[in-house]
Specification:
Mean pLDDT: 92
Radius of gyration: 18 Å
Structural class: alpha/beta
Distance between the termini: 17 Å
Length: 216
């Protein structure tokens, strides 16, 4: 697939509707399109105790679902499909997106004054579908990046004020480090800040540099 990158322009497809991931990728000057994945995000019981593997598995599902969609539409060319999944983990408990405000309050209360990990799984699928040919080539590679976040001690009033902003409701761990959550809740971030936002974009580009160059 690397040899193909030298001869063909690569279409980068972000398999995520997250505006934060789009902003991170755009910041690096990468041209891309967005296709929202409809993949099943439920986890088998055996993966719940393996957060890094769980994050990679969900990223793979999201990317694969988009790969299937574009091929079913008759795509021709070479594409790089990027899927990602971010989860917050504290003492082996995985915190996803809150289902409602009460759930957001519970999550933030449990994370109050504690350190937790933010794990983003990334899966990159390379699709080769030359025009006029029936043979399609597929390859993928996945990795996980972990950052560490320490929360301030949060009282109920602060938690309620933050929830009232609406920011927690679509984010793993019920907070956004790049927004008000970073100011109101976070004491310290260790590791890749972009990873906490939702995509370790510098590592992604470093590991697949030749493909991103071919996309420009």
């Amino acid at each position: 697939m690397a040899d193909m990158a030298e001869d063909m322009k690569i279409d980068v497809i972000l398999a995520s509707g997250s505006p934060r991931r789009s902003e991170l990728l755009a910041r690096e000057g990468v041209p891309f399109t967005v296709r929202v994945s409809q993949a099943d995000e439920t986890l088998d019981a055996d993966l719940l105790s393996q957060p890094e593997e769980a994050a990679k598995k969900l990223a793979e599902r999201k990317a694969r679902a988009v790969v299937e969609d574009v091929l079913n539409e008759g795509y021709e060319g070479m594409a790089m499909v990027v899927g990602a999944d971010t989860m917050v983990v504290a003492d082996s408990t995985i915190y996803g997106k809150p289902v409602d405000e009460a759930d957001a309050h519970r999550i933030l209360d449990e994370l109050s004054g504690r350190a937790h990990q933010v794990i983003t799984g990334v899966s990159v699928w390379l699709v080769g579908a030359p025009a006029g040919e029936q043979d399609i080539s597929l390859a993928f590679r996945s990795f996980a990046e972990t950052s560490h976040v320490l929360f301030k001690a949060l009282d109920d009033e602060l938690i309620e004020r933050y929830i009232a902003t609406g920011e927690p409701m679509d984010k793993a761990g019920a907070y956004g480090v790049q927004g008000l959550g970073g100011e109101m809740l976070v004491e310290r971030v260790s590791g890749d800040f972009d990873n906490v936002v939702g995509l370790p974009v510098k590592r992604l580009i470093a590991e697949f540099a030749e493909f991103f160059e071919a996309a420009k």
